[in-house]
Design a protein that fits this description.
This protein has a domain at 2-74 and 129-183: P-loop containing nucleotide triphosphate hydrolases (Rossmann fold). Helices cover 32% and strands 26% of the residues. The protein has six helices and eight strands, in the order βββαββαααβαβαβ. It has helices spanning 38-45, 79-84, 91-100, 115-128, 145-158, 171-177; strands spanning 2-10, 13-22, 26-31, 53-57, 64-67, 133-137, 163-168, 180-183. Strands 5-6-7-3-8 form a five-stranded parallel sheet, sandwiched between helices. A three-stranded antiparallel sheet has the order 2-1-4, covered by helices on one side. The structure holds adenosine-5'-triphosphate. Belongs to the ABC transporter superfamily.
Length: 187
């Protein structure tokens, strides 16, 4: 995937200025401080926001799976139902993923889960959805050390061969995922 001369402003506020980079298969971490434009960039890549100028190449026809900054789960459904919602009939694969991420297989609605548990359900859902590329916006927020390690291992294994874009303000993410890093310049 290539980002080519991307510009984006909200009113007078310039957020992305002539941004270009390539993201080959593997993990690319997008690093910037809070407010630095990471979410804006990912939303443009997902087609949810329009750039003012420039383009994203190489994702034409690709299936994208995402973890948004908010979890966007079906709160009254169980974790496994949140997963099979994106891949019907995949109960076994969904259960395996939940287990890998230390999540319960019970019928408990995710509304009753902790914030970190919900974050892991959102990641599991993105990993289960049939996809060619993963777009992950701060997927590890609110996770303790052990859950974060489980997520990293799962992403490493299941993201293999895909373009994975991961917005982060934690430089440890890139180190632990052996990822390329794109640092958004301060504007
Ligand atoms: N819809 C919008 N309308 C106006 N301004 C916006 C809009 N979306 C984002 N912005 C502004 O654009 C800038 C970049 O926001 P963005 O959410 O992309 O940053 P970020 O790097 O993801 O931040 P964080 O790490 O805090 O999530 C911020 O100053 C934000 O206020």
């Amino acid at each position: 995937m290539d980002v080519v001369h991307l510009w984006k402003a909200y009113g007078d506020k310039l957020v992305l200025r002539d941004l270009s980079f390539s993201a080959p298969p593997g993990v690319t971490c997008i690093e910037a401080p809070s407010g630095g434009g990471k979410t804006t960039l990912l939303r443009i890549i997902l087609g949810l926001e329009k750039a003012d100028r420039g383009r994203v190449e190489g994702l034409e026809g690709a299936r994208l799976a995402a973890v948004f900054q908010e979890d966007r789960l079906l709160l009254h459904a169980a974790a496994i139902e949140n997963l099979t919602f994106v891949r019907a009939g995949a109960e076994e694969a969904a259960a395996e993923l939940l287990e890998e991420l230390g999540l319960p297989l019970s019928g408990q609605p995710v509304a009753e889960f902790s914030g970190g548990m919900r974050r892991r359900v959102a990641l599991a859902r993105a990993l289960l959805a049939p996809s060619d590329a993963l777009v992950l916006d701060e997927p590890f927020t609110g996770l303790d050390t052990q859950s974060r390690a489980a997520c990293l291992a799962c992403l490493r294994r299941r993201g293999e061969g895909k373009v994975v874009l991961l917005a982060s303000h934690n430089p440890q993410d890139a180190r632990e995922l052996d990822a390329r890093v794109v640092r958004l310049p301060a504007i």
